[in-house]
Amino acid sequence: MALLQIAEPGQSAAPHQHKLAAGIDLGTTNSLVATVRSGEAKTLANAAGKDMVPSVVRYTADSVIVGDAAVSAAVTDAENTIVSVKRLMGKGYQETLAQAGALPYRLTEQNGLVAIETVQGIRNPVEISAEILATLANTASETLGGELTGVVITVPAYFDDAQRQATKDAARLAGLNVLRLLNEPTAAALAYGLDSGQEGVVAVYDLGGGTFDISVLRLKQGVFEVLATGGDSALGGDDFDHAIVSWLQQQTGETKLNGQQQRQYLKIARQLKEQLSDEQVVSIDLPLQQDKHWQGELSRTAFEQLIQPLVKRTIRACKQALRDAGLTTDEVVKVVMVGGSTRVPQVRQQVAEFFNTDPLTSIDPDKVVAIGAAIQANVLAGNKSDNETLLLDVIPLSLGIETMGGLTEKIIPRNTVIPVARAQEFTTFKDGQTAMAIHVVQGERELTENCRSLARFELRDIPPMAAGGAHIRVTFQVDADGLLSVTAQEKSTGAQASVQVKPSYGLTDDQVAAMISGSMQHARQDMQQRLLREQQVEAERVLEAVSAALDADSALLDETELTAIRQALAALAAAKQGTDTAAIKAAIEHTNTITDDFAARRMDQSIRQALRGHKVDEV
Amino acid sequence: MNYFQLFGVPAQFDLDLTDIGSRYLELQRSCHPDNFAAASERDRLLAVQQAANINDAYHSLKHPLLRAEHLLALRGLKISNEQRSFTDPAFLMQQMELREALAEIEDADEPEQVLADTERLIQQQKKQLLQQLSAALDAGEPQQDQLAAELIRKLKFFFKLQQELELIEQQLQD
């Protein structure tokens, strides 16, 4: 390795260096990390040789344990051992109480969000997920021998804005650079390489531990177009387990279970479910209280009856998704199976029956999502220059605002292709009004109270005018990750109204920053180091990007512009060598301003080039 | 923003939608934010905005009514958010009759047949109006543009009827 790398200011020392990137499947029950090495995507095993890490986090007085070691303690220390934290991501305290039933934790409220009181103090789902992410990223960087430049994290296609934002916050807390949040079903289709060669409609049936997703994709010339998504964010293999637990309770007569008994029952239920994939009848020996035992058996037929209503629900969602896509089952050419619960023969059989085709099951259904994420991470990190794949995603749930009388007005309907920006005009109803409140919701229902509250925005600094005089144009933008941002402008004066975001079920930027600085692993000095490092990384990105742009398109600039840009780059390169975070930030902003026009010209040029094969009509 | 210009096609109502589709994919291939995942924050933001524009343009160009509205807007006639009541009694009467026909489908002896008949009627009217719209827009005269606007208003009723009809069809199938 070179001890000293010398490069011209603004030139990248090693532009074609292989970047370390990983795909992470942050699952409800299990999580995995995978990467592409020597052209092949594979999941990575941790020091204990396992690649499937149970999504379980245990807090003890002085440590945090993630994965298998935490599972074994789950029965003995239920209150401090959090399983299926994904179900709590982006959830409010009240709604969790209403939905969750009997969670064995001490739930508490943190700014309206659900959090858990542990022996280490209050921990929220973002922090708990960050522990899992950090553990996986650690496995990856140890195996690959270097720091990751970026990760792709998968989320259920059904996740709303709050859940996606919470996932991204968790990554940030774990110190990871998120290249993209990728929908799990899309990742699965990528893993099967359906982007090359396959043309037509593909359905991805993903029945995991805690979520069910159905996605309908159309593949054409390397383009993945999500036509429709549907599913149920509270239906999965866990519910199969619970169905067995209820049945067991009926058999044993133990109607009330404490935390430990509940886990005992669940453990046996899981074993039964797995065994019944291969066997017709399984016998049971269940220890009860006071050293008694219950013995009996469960047949596959009886099990299938127990879960039939649940499987039916998934098929109904499949029907709805096809309907949304305007398709019939005959048009579906391939069905991809994802999630451990698709090993249940009953599930495979009903899916095959509904779609009238045998589903794809050759890749381990537990690993397929992580593998797809790794493939996409490799592409996004820039390791695959000849990449032709284009992922066009849709927004899973409609975005709307509350209007008079608590009704919802849809602004961006579900299944709209993202990124998308839609503007809506508002006007003042009082003389001299300078502020206005807007309530943004996500969901399909007419009444706002039946939709999910996303955020409340306050528009301030509206220039005072007569009632109805001010026209405020509010732009709702959803990026490729499905995350919403809002900007506002008063039309007649052009004044920018400031937008204050209060996420209903999320953390503000300040809260995330406070969590980062507050966590024990990041003392104050670490925090400053980290902010410096973040700016240095961004500076490096800007230097690389602008240099590459100059190499390719300096013809778009005149001498003066070229000189100004070169000077800005030299200044930025110099600032990057130093340790003054603010100076680096200022140099980045200066470079951005100087190159704004250049970037816009390049974008226009690339649009013209994209249409090169076509007759371009000069209007 | 001129969507026709963005897609490099002439600003006219009659477009080859297959061609628009392939132009769309090529534009997204070059501008999609995924191509800028490792780029600077400014470039990523620029890509998100551009990709959003392309999506919006495609959405408008492929739908006949949105395309016609956009064409009129480019000519200075904005009708997308207007609040205006209709004053063509014959047209309103016809709409009421069609609406009644839809409401009666469920209770009909042969709902499938009535459904098919009503659909044919709606399709016929829609097709006729679209042809008139195309002619009016391609004339490129202010008076014809006003006529086009009127045709768009009428067509909106038919597209709405079509949606309701599809809903009834779904309910019948369930």
Distance between the termini of chain A: 55 Å
Structural class given helices, strands, pairing of chain B?
mainly alpha
Q: What's the Cα radius of gyration of chain B?
A: 20 Å
Q: Main sheet of chain A?
A: 8 strands, antiparallel
Number of strands of chain B: 0
Gross morphology of chain A: globular
Distance between the termini of chain B: 43 Å
Order of helices and strands of chain B: HHHHHHH
Mean pLDDT of chain B: 88
Uncertain segments of chain A? 1-15
Mind describing the biggest β-sheet of chain B?
none
Say how many strands of chain A there are. Answer: 28
Summarize the structure.
Chain A is α+β, with helices and mostly antiparallel strands. Helix content of chain A is 37%, strand content 27%. In chain B, 30% of the residues are buried.
Question: What does this protein look like?
Answer:
The complex is a heterodimer of chains A (619) and B (174). Helices cover 37% and strands 27% of the residues of chain A. Chain A is built from 14 helices and 28 strands. Chain A starts with 20 loop residues before the first strand and ends in a 9-residue tail after the last helix. Chain B has 174 residues and is an all-alpha fold. Chain B is 75% helix and 0% strand. Chain B has seven helices and no strands. In chain B, helix 2 (17-31) packs antiparallel against helix 3 (41-62), helix 5 packs parallel to helix 7 (142-173) and helix 6 packs antiparallel against helix 7. The termini of chain B are far apart. At the A-B interface, strand 19, strand 22, strand 23, helix 12 and helix 14 of A face helix 1, helix 2 and helix 3 of B.
Main attributes?
heterodimer; A: 619 residues; alpha+beta; eight-stranded antiparallel beta sheet; six-stranded mixed beta sheet; 28 strands; disordered N terminus; B: 174 residues; mainly alpha
